[in-house]
Model the fold of this input.
Amino acid sequence: MDWDIVIGIETHIQLKTKSKQFSGASTAYGNEPNSQACLVSLAYPGLLPVLNHESVNCAIKLGLAINAKIARRSIFARKNYFYPDLPKGYQISQMELPIVGPGYLSINANEKKKDVRILRAHLEEDAGKSSHGVSQGKTGIDLNRAGTPLLEIVTEPDMNSAEEAVAYAKKLHELVQWIGICDGNMQEGSFRCDVNVSVKKKGTEVLGTRREIKNLNSFKFIKQAVDYEVNWQIETLEDGGKIDQATILFNPETGETKAMRSKEEANDYRYFPDPDLLPLLVTEEQIDEIKKLMPKLPDEMQESFKKELGLSEYDASEIASDSEVTKYFLALVDSKVNPKLSANWILGNLYSRLNEEEININQSPIDSQRLAELIKRIEDSTISNNAAKKVFDFIWDKSSITVDQAIDELGLKQISDSGEIDILVDQVLKNNQLMVEEYRSGKDKAFNALVGQVMKASKGKANPSQVSELLKQKISK
Ligand code: ADP
Ligand code: MG
Done:
């Protein structure tokens, strides 16, 4: 039997603000447990929450970036539940009136473009962290994270494969970093996805019962978890079983998903408007101010790379998939280096070296200025593309040496002196009479072989286009 897969994603992003959502305590990661647990984080009675306006600006930025409606008035609500790392006994969130939504995000998966509708994005606060077994039989509570500003971004159930789910997560991950509202650090939990999965018989309208895979913090896990879960649901249904709505966890070690608890309903949380917080009002002027500060978005950037700089679809989308790579690329273009050549070098040599060393582009020992110098030496025919690769490897860990010094030191300067090339060409023609005959009798391949011979004789230093120019002149005589 054929099945449709249906996926909706809820993403929690930690907003890049210095202080917490409702207090002045620091949001820095990795400090001594509870050193950032202020009285508000500890839920001392009588303390009132004060809203962090920077997080509101972040939410507005996201709204603008996903073509969403931004509510002029939204409401904070209390989501009540008991957990040891939630001292207040409730989380401040938004329920009926969220600040952002609806909007959409365009994704590309399986060579198909699709708009994933985003139902809403609402502001809330993070809980603390429980560390089980800190000492035997004991659980430690760290409230440093309690109260960290979060934006929860909820899609409609619009994705229909693990690939689309991953494409969406990647696109959103890239976007929130691009607009500067989240550091995107998935290991530290700054970007985590709850992925809701259901299946239904192909073509039927009614959605199946979903199970929600909690807290996936890598794209690989999203793919593995969805694949496993879809198989499990289909097998269960085909064996005559039924799916119960549940919250489940993915175990990266076994690659399996497992039920954690049966899903609670919204009314279990007894949501109600938080009486300590006024309605959040956003003005037209505020939105206009933020609009002015917004960078060109990845999709727009990609378009302009194609239209204005002549990059291919693939190169444009690869470069525009990361704001740091875009910056690096634009710096090359600003130094008047050919855009296509720049893209080739970034996506080719630079990327493979960065991958090898497991570093990202802003840690590259060859910065955009040095790469620009190198590519210019190809453009002005000082060195061949192949020689440039050698220079690239040579200067990788030598910051003190200039590109020109490296070219000298490696003896890679092309011979552009036509007199010298002339002599080499004559020698090759004399020693390869047979090839010359073959070429004259119509075998074009023989010509390339002759060029190859001259290049070899010059130890790769002759300028290839000059060589073929000269060869053509001489043979046709
Ligand atoms: P809750 O907040 O209780 O988890 P929501 O109704 O807000 O529930 O839905 C959460 C997410 O689940 C949304 O992203 C939504 O698109 C998705 N979703 C809802 N129904 C289904 C379904 N049948 N299959 C897959 N995903 C679904
Ligand atoms: Mg949910």
Q: What stands out?
A: Residues 296-410 form one domain.
